[in-house]
Structures are given as C-alpha cells and as structure tokens.
C-alpha cells in the first residue's frame, strides 16, 4: 500500500474515534468533510475502510448525520446497482461483502 493510500485509511479510523467525542455540530463541521473525501476516494482500499467502519461511524455521528451523509454515501454512483447487476464469479464475494455492510447498517438505523 502506498503512502497516499495509507493516510486516508488511518484518517477513517481516527474520524470514528474523534466523532464519538464531539458534539453533532462539531462532527459535521470538523470530521464529515474528511469522511466525504474518503468515501469518494479513487482508491478502493480507502473506500473499503470507510465501508468497514460504516456502522461504527453511524453509532458515533448519530441519526441526523447518518441520514444526511452516511445514507447518501451508500447511494453514490459507483455503488449503485452493485447488488442488482450480474457479476462475474470472481466478483460475487464483493457483492456478499456489500450485502453484509448494508444489513449491518440497517440494523443500527
């Protein structure tokens, strides 16, 4: 993993930790811009880390930010259709991973 991928991956974990300590207004202003960038990063590793921490983020940021920021992240263009389009056999495991995250996300909501 290159240094350019390593920093955003670590930022995602730090954002989860910081979000649980701050008030909602501060999370929106200080943490969410970084998380938005990570969720839309070109690197799949960075996006995967955001997805991996989604339910932790959801618990840390609260219901309002979840509704306004985290739910739309599941609807971004690169993820839209992931569960409904036919995938080659090698990509079926990714569909299962995303299904796990969607189910986990819905359980916390």
Walk me through this protein's architecture.
With 109 residues, the chain is mainly α. It has one domain (3-108). It has six helices and no strands. The protein has helices spanning 3-19, 24-39, 44-52, 54-61, 63-74, 92-108. The longest helix is centred in the N-terminal third of the chain and has 17 residues, at 3-19. The chain is globular, with a radius of gyration of 14 Å.
Overview in brief:
This protein is mainly alpha-helical and 109 residues long. Helix content is 72%, strand content 0%. It has one domain (3-108).
* Number of self-contained structural domains: 1
What is the radius of gyration? 14 Å
Helix content: over 70%
Q: What's the SSE pattern?
A: HHHHHH
Determine the mean pLDDT: 76
Give the N-terminus to C-terminus distance in angstroms.
33 Å
> Given the helix and strand composition, which structural class is it?
mainly alpha
- Oligomer state equals single chain
- Low-pLDDT runs of 5+ residues are none
Strands, total number: 0
Sheet with most strands:
none
* Shape descriptor: globular
Total helices: the number is 6
Task: Give keywords.
109 residues, mainly alpha
Topology (SSEs and partners):
Layout: H1 3-19, H2 24-39, H3 44-52, H4 54-61, H5 63-74, H6 92-108
